[in-house]
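Quick board copy: two proteins, each given as sequence then tokens.
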Amino acid sequence: MQLSITKFEKPVYVFEPVLPDLNQLHEKLSEIWASKYVANMGPQHRLLNERITEFLKVSNTTLFSNGTLALMAASRALDLEGEVITTPFTFAATPHSLVWNNLTPVFCDINPVDLTINPARIEEMITPRTSAIMGVHVYGNPCDVVKIQEIADKYNLKVIYDAAHAFGTTIDGIGIGNFGDMTMFSFHATKLFNTIEGGALCYKDEQLMDKLNLIKNFGIKNEEEVVMAGFNAKLNEVQSAVGLLVLDMVEEEQKKRMKVFDIYKEVVDRLDGVEIVNTSDESVHSSYQYFAIRIDAERCGRTRDEVYHKFKNYNVFTRRYFYPLCSDFECYRDLPSSAVANLPVAKQASKEVLCLPFYGSLLENNGAESISHILRKVIVDG
């Protein structure tokens, strides 16, 4: 179907939160108000914890008020010291969580296909001060968890995964939260599953549960004992109630995003110099968190930034995600591992990747089709 290409009346953003029906939310809030239990891991929190564990197909889950604090708690719970090898192609929270634990992030380059941390480069970056590897499952595409674990076992390192983009991602049917020592999920409003703000850690070692609960509750063991310097990172009852309702919507939202994906893909596949950032591994079921493309300026004749700005003319706000690299931030650029020569693949990707709007409601009023046609026009005609 040929559509006229016109400017959207209202701004179209990369993200749109999945929100529950207000009447259902009112019923949940009525339960909470009647119970007078609004915080401190009450019944809504406990039920969400149980259902998240089941949905993600993991052994243990601990909920947090946001994903950044969850990542911070992971490093603390695993008693990490010294240096942690991670990726510069990620959101700021990844390295920041390390610095707040007095750890030094060591940036490792990424692989050019799915843009996750490159295991072939990890081993050369290990020093006597290295205590862990922190990988990031980018756009729902998983890291090479097998090779990373082999390296970790060889050097006795811990493995933490930032799975902010990977809620529901599986490998051969195994939930992504089963790999490594700990996996963090973000429940921010921009994510496929959200509690407006929130996060979780998943892990196999059940003995970590008590420690994590202490960390996120000021280190308080009971009324008379505070046994460690913790912080406040508890998911409250209202957030948990939102999560319980949104969780029921996730599978339907994923189905809709698959259709949006196919609409975009049909156009992208016909554009020279434009490709989808997607794993080629058939064993992987993606979360469908983002729709990311790479724009090769030499082949298509347009730079990523040109396309990014052209979209604004149509009231469509794409995102250069991740740009700039974390290694380019003022607080990290002086690290030896931040040198441009150390990160050629990540540096190139940061100049080429663009995320398009990606959520189920784009199926309404031919929204996804219109955006795909705008992309084609911008690339072909400028």
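And the next:
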Amino acid sequence: MANNRIVILGAGVSGLTTAYLLSQDASNSITVLAKHMPGDYDIEYTSPWAGANYLPYVLQGVGKAGSDHERWERNTWPTLRELTKNHPEAGIHFQETIVYNRTKDQGSATGEWFSELVQKDPWYMEVVPDFQDIPADQLAPGIDNASKFTSVCINTAVYLPWLVGQCRKNGVVFKRAVLKHIADAANGHHSGQKADVVVNCTGLSSKKLGGVLDDKLYPARGQIVVVRNDPGKMVSISGTDDGEDEVVYMMTRAAGGGTVIGGSYQKNQWDPLPDPNLAVRIMKRAIALCPELVEKGQGIEGLDIIRHGVGLRPLREGGPRIEAEKIDGVSVVHNYGHGGFGYQASFGCAEDAVKLVQETLRRKDKAKL
């Protein structure tokens, strides 16, 4: 019998993954409340804009080997691998991945973002399949080191609805809601009774959500171009010569999702509209790095554009917030602030959040005795 009433606020990848794991316990009765749901495209809703993939990296010193960040990503890979192998309906596929490093990018915004990814002998070399360094004599001028391995790319337009479907199969109820205060979520459970615990997965919106008001959150604006061209591999590099907050990456989403080309890493930039000049630079850089993207001799006119997009990565000073507290008498577990690694750390972070929910519910049960 479901006797633990849980409300999850937010339906991005973090909220949906947390709901999915909690819903596997039949004693939990779960409502997901969200302003935005899968199928929506809005600047406030980050998850649909993501690539998305598994490329481990560091974020402001929290992604070093042995850190929580490493543990979250290490613990997420087995589930992504299992879904890719056994659940094609989830919209994930394996993809050959090449990562290039330029030493001169160290210290830049993108260089910091990529710093763990481009290390020699990084921690994740024992996690992802087929990891190998690319010999120096095979590198183009200006590239200091590179590696290749097998990773995954996620079609977010398929995967997010798949998570919703798995949750609904386990009895989760989804409701639209716009709340001004986190404590109000406790009154949104579909039973009509007050929730025992609220899980806050509102990402960047936690900056303005009453009761939370986390001033450590800030956006890192990412601009992308989605094209029909398929380079046949996932490629990225640590920086560009066009600006320290611009970068080159491309990945082809599973199940006909198109190839996502980026990008930018513009901290504290909230502009929701694509910059046409940046879009041109993104496309030119992608072709220069990976000429196979277009037919021989073609420039950006060889790209078949599906759409332009902008997403705001929810960065947080010190890394994600996964902790429990009481706000106005309501038990709250936070799981937000995942920057640009929400998908690749999703199951590891959600597992930590689930443990905190379980501890909170145990304390409530003891208090009733």
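Board note added afterward: The chain has a mean pLDDT of 94.
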